[in-house]
Amino acid sequence: MNSKNILFLSIFLFFILSTNINCSTQGLNKIITSDEQKKLIETFEKTLSSKDFKKENFQSLLQSSVGYQILSGSSIWSKIQKEDLCQEIKTFFEDFSPNSEEQYESQKAIWTTLNSLQSGSIIYNELQCHTKKKNNKINKLSPAIKELLLKSINGKSSRNIYLGGQTFFELEKTKIFNEKETDEFRKATLKSFAKMLALLEEDDPEVEFSQYILELAVLVVENYDSETSYQALADDDNDIIDESDKTESESEDDEEEYESLEGYLEMTIEELLENVLELIPDVANLLVENDGQVTQSFFNDESGKPDLEITSRVLRTFVKLKKLSIKLNKDEEEEEEDEDEDEDGDDEEIFTEEDLIGLAEFLFSRKSTQDISAAYNVITGLKSLDEDRVFKKLICITADKEELSIKQKSKKNAMNLLVSDLFGKALPADNIEVFLSRFSPVSKPEQSLTSHFLINQDRKSGQYAADLLAYRPSIGFYNLEVRVSYKPPKAGTANKKLRPFKPVDVTILTKIVGPVKVSDLEIVVKQPKSQGGSVLTRNKIKYPETLNSAKKDIVVNRDNVLSISFRVIAGQPSKSSKKQKAGFQQSINNLIETHQAMIKITDLETGIERYFLAIQKTKKYQCTIDINSNDGNMDFSSGKYNLELIIGNFFFEKSIQWNFSQIKINFGDLSEGEQKILDLSIENQKIHPDFLIKDEIKHIFNPDPKRPPKVVSNAFTGIMLIPFLLLIILLYIVGFNLKSFPSLKNPIAVITNLTFIASLAFIVLLFLAYFFKLTMFKTLFYLLIISVISSVSGYFTLRNLDK
Amino acid sequence: MTENSFKVFKRIFDGYKNSATQSLKIIDCFLLFQFLTGIFQFVYVFLVGKFPFNSFLAGFISTVGSFVLTINLRTLVDPENKETKVSIKRAFVDFLICNVILHLAVFNYIG
């Protein structure tokens, strides 16, 4: 080759390379790990814990089954008593009747009922309740349900139309409706769908659009023949006269409200689908304008918080609609096996890569939920994002370790990278190439310890081993940039497992840590500078020993200054390759700065701990403790103390907490103020009584107030009898006559008279008995009897008096 | 002075003795009895405090209520009463029934 060709070739290659670099996209550096998936599976299984199935649980059961199926691949239905569930569904559908008229009025009640109906009907079909056992089959649908379905399908809320329509279509599969009803429902659903689309055309989609219109579109396309239209269905109907009468009266209203309704009524399902597909970019814009978090005000619901359900539902329906449209077009166009389509297909794609990543991040932020519907939404949303026929492929690269230590041997301790989809399922190795692009410290991003090179896959684990320690990084934070690009499969391999994609870059934050040691620790007790600054004692301690206290104790008197100095050394990778014989050797000879360096003084008696910071002066740390000043906060307490050194940093394998010596501090006699400070410090250590456990309060009722002594009471009881005696005496004085008493010749009269008097006496006795023994009910009962007797006898007695 | 008042009282008393029928006198004794009972109860409570207040109320209302009913009976029984024309028997029966109801409540309330 001559130089011209070489030049041309190099420029060409450079151009390719640069465009390749410029055209790469971002990937994700997190996935939903298998532990998190297990937790979600457990959440889904919790719905089975209540064996008693109620209609309120149908929706969560259905959601759990879908989520469980996606995550574990198996069906949740094998774990439940299908018969019980089928019975419950059957009872619900046959015996449903709303409690009152009010239930129909409340939107919320209608929604919950429709939700239960929809979920129940889907479960009914999935479990094949109507085929397994005859007594599980729904024989006759409750008329209230039919009424509710019709009402919701003919209503104005797209949510209700969708729920009602779905219920109808699910139940229709079990052949529970007759032909007339089926016709009616089918026409009504299609008409309502056309109405909704017409409504959209009239108004601003930001104000009136509902996520449920998309669901409705999916429902319609799945259940109607693609060539039919509402007009066609209406024409099929024999009662043309009735139809035209209806449409005349209704169409007046319709024409006022929706001008375009007629047009929609004439469109075939295919054309309606195209209309809906045109809406998708607008909805996608709404979704990502808020970084994947949709405010509900855009959809006709209430509050304005970011919503998981809407995001997930919109993604699901996008996928379904796209798939349905592909299916419809399959017969018409040839499916092109191409790789060019995706290279320039930005216009055809719904979301850009950043938007997809934003949506995925939003869904990941909710993955640790315990709520079933939230978990369902997260899982189905992620599953929808994973569909690379609809959205661009999202590639996730995750590392199995967060940090590597320079003490570890390089080849055995590589950082294993998993290149996978959102769920952690590895991409097929035949179709991808993984490159380690850059490995640079975060503080100096321009320095890369490695150039762009290919990583091979470890056949055992399926992961890619990035042997970072081989580059001998020093300790610190590093950015690891990994690139994944598409590799066309070898000619001859039949299945193309992966669709082509642009190269994807992912940045992973890693940490390199190393061992640490303290050296040259020195304890110096000296006179303060004002008195000369001469050194009284000096002790050197080697890490990790403790100063032998059998020797003379270090004593610090009041005037003295305690000074502790030391150096911190961290491990660094050895630059010489000779030492790399059996793995990786480190040499600890590097003075470094640390994040935290302090001395902790613990009072052995009271247990009070005090901290002093060590300041760095030219790579040597020094901590000066002037016990006299209150800056040191020694609180003037004398006694024995423990000295500990605490060193901490991000990049130490293990931080140091080293008890190196005991000292004795002697304050001598304290002035009054100083004594007060000391007492206060001890006092503060005690817990305030308010925070301690208090005595138990035993409740006592109010004691009865004092009563008078019994003598007084009894005396007064006696006094009370005086008027009675007085009465008797007076009566005797006045004299009472018994002339009216009937003579003995008239026995009946005598008896009635006596009965009357006796009954009155009995009433008095009854009251006494009531006071001592009886209950009110019995008293009243007996009173009734006696009063009858007394009234009868009294009547006769008094009548006889005149005679 | 006291002689005069004594004479006045005696005159009233004699007038009373002559004019009132026997049944009226009996009823008057009964009235006096109820009145005294009520007064004594009230004095007792005044002295020793009203701890079981419900008992005091029961006793007091018993006397007061009966007093009222007896006065009612007296007015209806009085031959000089020309305004209300109710037969004595009717009055008596009413008196009995009301007393029964009153004492039912009273016994309930003694506690």
TrEMBL record, chain A:
Taking every annotated instance into account, which residue ranges of this chain make up the domain Ribophorin II C-terminal?
701-801
Q: Which stretches are tagged as biased composition: Acidic residues?
A: 250-260, 331-349
Please state the span of the N-terminal signal peptide per the UniProt entry.
1-23
Compartments where located: Endoplasmic reticulum membrane
User: Does this UniProt record's set of keywords contain Transmembrane?
Assistant: yes
Q: Where is this region: Disordered?
A: 232-260, 329-349
Q: What is its main location?
A: endoplasmic reticulum
> Quick check: keyword Cell membrane in the entry?
no
**Domain Ribophorin II second residue range list:** 407-494
- Topology with respect to the bilayer: Multi-pass membrane protein
Give UniProt keywords alphabetically.
Endoplasmic reticulum, Membrane, Signal, Transmembrane, Transmembrane helix
Top-level taxon: Eukaryota
User: Which Pfam families does this chain map to?
Assistant: Ribophorin_II_2nd (PF23861), Ribophorin_II_3rd (PF23860), Ribophorin_II_C (PF25147)
Protein task: Subunit of the oligosaccharyl transferase (OST) complex that catalyzes the initial transfer of a defined glycan (Glc(3)Man(9)GlcNAc(2) in eukaryotes) from the lipid carrier dolichol-pyrophosphate to an asparagine residue within an Asn-X-Ser/Thr consensus motif in nascent polypeptide chains, the first step in protein N-glycosylation. N-glycosylation occurs cotranslationally and the complex associates with the Sec61 complex at the channel-forming translocon complex that mediates protein translocation across the endoplasmic reticulum (ER). All subunits are required for a maximal enzyme activity.
**Under what name is this protein listed?**
Ribophorin II
TrEMBL record, chain B:
User: Which InterPro entries does this entry report, sorted A to Z?
Assistant: DAD/Ost2
Q: Which GO terms describe its cellular component?
A: oligosaccharyltransferase complex
Give the UniProt keywords, A-Z: Endoplasmic reticulum, Membrane, Transmembrane, Transmembrane helix
Locations listed in the record: Endoplasmic reticulum membrane
Membrane topology per record: Multi-pass membrane protein
Key word Transmembrane present: yes
GO BP annotation list: protein N-linked glycosylation
Keyword check for Endoplasmic reticulum: yes
What stretches pass through the bilayer? 26-47, 53-71, 91-110
Pathway it works in:
Protein modification; protein glycosylation
User: Pfam families in the record, alphabetically?
Assistant: DAD (PF02109)
First-listed, main subcellular location of the protein, grouped into a coarse class: endoplasmic reticulum
Q: How does it assemble?
A: Component of the oligosaccharyltransferase (OST) complex.
| Assigned protein family | Belongs to the DAD/OST2 family.
Q: What does this protein do?
A: Subunit of the oligosaccharyl transferase (OST) complex that catalyzes the initial transfer of a defined glycan (Glc(3)Man(9)GlcNAc(2) in eukaryotes) from the lipid carrier dolichol-pyrophosphate to an asparagine residue within an Asn-X-Ser/Thr consensus motif in nascent polypeptide chains, the first step in protein N-glycosylation. N-glycosylation occurs cotranslationally and the complex associates with the Sec61 complex at the channel-forming translocon complex that mediates protein translocation across the endoplasmic reticulum (ER). All subunits are required for a maximal enzyme activity.
Q: What is this protein called?
A: Dolichyl-diphosphooligosaccharide--protein glycosyltransferase subunit OST2
Native organism? Anaeramoeba flamelloides
Q: What is the lineage of its organism?
A: Eukaryota, Metamonada, Anaeramoebidae, Anaeramoeba
